[in-house]
Amino acid sequence: MNSGKQADSMPRIYRFSRTAFLVSLHCICIIFTIFVTLQSRPGSSLFSWHPFLMTLAFSLFMTEAILIFSPHGFPIQKLTYRTKSRCHWILQGLCVSCAVLGVAAIYYNKHLNGKPHLTSWHGVLGAMTLWVVMLQSLAALPLLYPSLAKGWSLARLKRYHAATGMLTYLLGSVSLVLGLTSAWFTASVKGYAWYLAALCPALCALYIINQITTGYTSKKTIAVKNK
Question: Which residues cross the membrane (predicted)?
Answer without folding.
Answer: 20-38, 50-69, 89-108, 120-145, 166-186, 192-210
